[in-house]
Amino acid sequence: MPSEERSAGPREPRTDNEPCDLVTVPARQGLEAVDILRRGGAPEVGPVLHDGSCDTLGFLVPPGTAAGWDMPGSACTQTSGRGLRLPAEPPGAGSGWLLPPGDTGPVTDPAVLREALGEAARMIEAADSI
Predict the structure, then answer these.
(1) How many other CB atoms are there within 10 angstroms of residue 95's CB atom?
(2) Which of 44, 92, 95, 123 could serve as a FRET partner for 101 with CA atoms 20 to 30 Å apart?
(3) Residue 10: its H or E element
(4) How many CB atoms are closer than 10 A to CB 112?
(5) φ, ψ for residue 39, nearest 5 deg
(6) How many Cβ atoms sit within 10 Å of the Cβ of residue 70?
(7) Which of 36, 58, 50 lies closest to 107 in space, CA to CA?
(8) Where are the domains of the chain?
(9) Cα 31 from chain centroid?
C-alpha cells in the first residue's frame, strides 16, 4: 500500500473561506494545549486567535462543534450551522493570530482539542498545587 506523503514546505494560505466554529479558553490553558498538540504530533492544529489583552485563546474547529461541546472552563461559539468565516486578518480590533492561517491546518479536530485541553487543565492544577 503506498504511503501518503505530506509536504514539509509552507502551507498554502486558506482562500476557501470555509465556515468554522470557535472554541475559547483561558490563555494559560490554551497555550498549554497548543504545546501539547504540537508536541504530540496532532494531525493538524488549526489557526488560533488571541484577544488583545491575551486573556483568551480561540481555536478554530469544524462548524457544528458547538452543538456537542461540553468542556468545562471553555465555550464554543454557537453559529446555528452558519459557521464563522475565516478572515485573512484577525476578526476583531486588538486581536491577533497566535497560529495564523496558512501556517496551520484548516481547523483543529474537536476530539483532539478536548483531550489536549483536559491534559492542560490537569497540568495547571498540578503545578498550582505545589
Answers:
(1) 16
(2) 123
(3) none
(4) 18
(5) -75, -35
(6) 7
(7) 58
(8) 19-128
(9) 10
